[in-house]
Fold:
Amino acid sequence: MDYRQRIVEEAAVMFRTYGIRAVTMDMLAGQMGISKRTIYEVFKDKDELLQGVIKWMTVRQSKVMEKIFSESENIIEAIFKLLDFMSEHFRNMSPAFHMDMKRHHFEMMKRMGDLDELPYAKNNAEILKRGIKEGIFRKDIDIEITNKCLSEVARMSNDKDVFPPDNFINKDVIRNFYINYLRGISTQKGLDLINFYEKKLGHDKKS
Structure:
């Protein structure tokens, strides 16, 4: 593994654990047992390092998503598995990371969001197309409009200002927003599958 990859992976762990502002280049260098100069030879500043971290996270998450979709019997099963993965990911992430991104790196978020690169700001078009092909989503939906709506639903459900963690469980918020939206675009087959996996999830929780 080269220095760039090592630095990105270690920075990702530290950013997720302590928040972005709390982690200095000195701390990162000390944690890795290398000099700060070595880090600056690879990344010109902390913002460039953060961009590298986010892109690395996105690639990683994309691979997980591809595996989930390829191994699922239908798109509804895939969505429930994906929601579990997302919930686990955010549960293990410090609220400080979200706060720092929103307050101090908003332009970066906006720029990367426009390029569809932010983690979990994924394009849902393929999900919708597969759902229509499987007879799970209605054929009359506008994929472009619905795709944008689903992206906003995902963003809003993860907004800590709207749903503070002390008052709301992230998994419940995501499911209430996202799954209820999917009900509105589903065929009867889709509704039956949603009900099936919701019951299966409840059974799994009790077992």
